[in-house]
Specification:
By secondary structure, the chain is mostly helical. The chain folds into two domains: 34 residues, no CATH class; 49 residues, no CATH class. Helices cover 53% and strands 9% of the residues. Strands 1-2 form a two-stranded antiparallel ribbon. A hairpin with a 4-residue loop joins strand 1 and strand 2. The longest helix is centred in the middle third of the chain and has 17 residues.
Length: 93
């Protein structure tokens, strides 16, 4: 797995999601990672980065790493649980 951090020149920490979103819009921030709401934001047009992050997340799900992280943080494998729900709702998963 390629280290995604190789392309990051600087990381900033914000005290709120709102503050991060304002910087994203006004200061040219490329990516926002939010642990409160479990979201990742990307600059418009960052298709290659979005694709690579999706690939890494897919790999983590397939090899079970995402489930293990979920168990460590939430006490259960929420990834498998959510995938089962999605599979019932949308058979394409």
């Amino acid at each position: 797995m390629t280290d995604i951090y190789d392309s990051i020149s600087e990381m900033l920490k914000y005290t709120s999601v709102a503050e991060a979103l304002i910087s994203f819009k006004t200061k040219g921030i490329d990516v926002i990672v939010v642990d409160e709401n479990y979201g990742i934001g990307f600059e418009k047009g960052s298709y290659a980065l979005v694709e690579r992050v999706d690939e890494i997340l897919d790999e983590m799900i397939e090899e079970g790493t995402a489930g293990k992280i979920s168990i460590d943080w939430f006490g259960e494998d929420m990834i498998s649980r959510l995938l089962n729900i999605y599979r019932k709702l949308l058979p394409i998963f």
